[in-house]
Amino acid sequence: MEYKIIAVFKLQPGKADEEIERCKSADSLLNTLRTFPGFISYEVVKMNEESTMTIQTWRSKADFTEAMPKAMGVQASKIKGRENIVVSYQGYSGEVVLAG
């Protein structure tokens, strides 16, 4: 079963486009995740000018669980300054049980 991770980010006012551009950059989390087995996709949704949502899709929870600590280690030095954009976030995850 596929595994989804959804994160909703509350950002500083007017910073959604800046966050989206950061997600497109060469050193983004997306490009790091692409290197791990089981990674399927990463989507960024602009909800409004101060919030975004990301949706990660993995082949399995095991693939995600194995990759994420390594990916965050790679990303740790790359996300400096992001704390100035992100006010808070909420994360959700689970196995896909129905898709159409």
Which features would summarize this protein structure in a list?
single chain; 29% helix; four-stranded antiparallel sheet; alpha+beta; Alpha-Beta Plaits; 3 helices; 4 strands; 100 residues
What does this entry look like structurally?
With 100 residues, the protein is α+β, with helices and mostly antiparallel strands. The chain has a domain at 1-59 and 84-91: Alpha-Beta Plaits, CATH 3.30.70. The protein contains 3 helices and 4 strands, in the order E-H-H-E-E-H-E. The two termini are 14 Å apart.
> What is the H/E string?
EHHEEHE
3D shape? globular
CATH topology of the domain at 1-59 and 84-91: Alpha-Beta Plaits
Biggest β-sheet: strands ordered side by side in the sheet = 2-3-1-4
- What are the segments in which pLDDT stays under 50 over at least 5 consecutive residues? none
What is the radius of gyration? 14 Å
Average pLDDT figure:
91
The end-to-end span amounts to 14 Å
**DSSP strand count:** 4
Task: Give a brief description.
Helices cover 29% and strands 37% of the residues. It has 100 residues and is of the alpha+beta class.
How are the secondary structure elements laid out?
Layout: E1 3-11, H1 16-24, H2 29-33, E2 39-48, E3 51-58, H3 61-75, E4 86-95
Antiparallel strand pairs: 1-3, 1-4, 2-3
